[in-house]
Amino acid sequence: MSSEVDVTAFGDLLMPQEAAEPILAKPVRGALLEWLTEIWAEDELRAAKLQPRRRAIFDGPPGVGKTTLAHHLSARLGLPMLAVRPDRLVDKWLGSTGKNIGALFDAASRGKEPILLFLDEFDAIGMKRREASQGAEDERNSFVNTLLQCIDRFDGFLIAATNFSGHIDRAIWRRFDVHISLALPGQFERERILARYLDPHGLPSSALTAMAEALETASPALIRQLAEGLKRQIIIGPKVGWDMAKGAVVDRLLAAIQPHPDLGKPRLWSLGAADSAVRALPWPLPLAADCSGAAENAPESESAVVPFRRAP
Ligand SMILES: Nc1ncnc2c1ncn2[C@@H]1O[C@H](COP(=O)(O)OP(=O)(O)O)[C@@H](O)[C@H]1O
Ligand SMILES: [Mg+2]
Fold first, then answer.
1. Closest to 125 measured CA to CA, from 149, 152, 98
2. 57 alpha carbon to ligand 2 midpoint, in Å?
3. What is the pLDDT at residue 128?
4. CB of 83 closer than 6 A to ligand 1?
5. Please, are residues 280 and 210 in contact by the beta-carbon 8 Å criterion?
6. Ligand 2: centre distance to CA 92 (Å)
7. How confident is the model at residue 94 (pLDDT cuts 50, 70, 90)?
8. % pLDDT > 70, the chain
9. Going from the N-terminus, what domains does the chain have, and what CATH number goes with each?
10. Which residues contact 114 (CB under 8 A, 6 or more apart)?
């Protein structure tokens, strides 16, 4: 046997029990359920000479939950997920990139336990091939070809994620038979995301609606940072003698948290403490349990991510 390369040389191994369920729009949840149902029906499919689809590509802007969703899925399948870091594959001299890709897939198929392979920032390795005119282009084309062969041979679960689906080589794109686009959250999802990350605090329904409106175009990651930053200030601020007036807290928060440059600034960042959503914000921030009549404030019963291989 050739020398074994440990998969963790290429990224982080994430365990099922550490996964959290992302808050997703209905069509995405539908697509996901469909895929899981297909995987759980593997035996019936095989009897009909079919195979469940095992390769998916998630595309969408940064911070919408691509990694979170892949991890959640691996947990539903009862598999650890190797989150491959592209910088562990792409060699600055390019020459080694193809070798790294080969070694990764080798290690992933040879392990004793199956893992789900998650290739983040997939555009970095799966980019379109170009007409070779220079050495560097030759190298790129050659590792994209290597990647194609590795994908074809790999029979485990493979999920790729990208913010730039247009940059992916078409032949590589076709190898993925499940395509799921994650968009920025709508008003309903923003309210639920806010409620999740404000917990154990919460907001009365009208204030939650107003805040979610002021966060239009925000990614879930940004909403999480904001809600958690707020809770952190509420705990730490008084201990270090900060001004805990509502406007001062909001100003500090907005100065410290920067929306992703590609996504634009939600209204809250333009108006700051003067935003009507901030005026509607009860202060001090109440506990969720004390907010009457706001069902969306109830911390969701986090659908415990049980490893769940087959439908009963
Ligand atoms: N849809 C979502 N619901 C709840 N939390 C989310 C969601 N999307 C992202 N997050 C949170 O934002 C952070 C970044 O998410 P991540 O999955 O890495 O996004 P991406 O891979 O699309 O860039 C994580 O901490 C995650 O908990
Ligand atoms: Mg990610």
1. 98
2. 12
3. 80
4. no
5. yes
6. 22
7. low
8. 90
9. 7-181 (3.40.50.300), 187-297 (no CATH)
10. 79, 156, 157
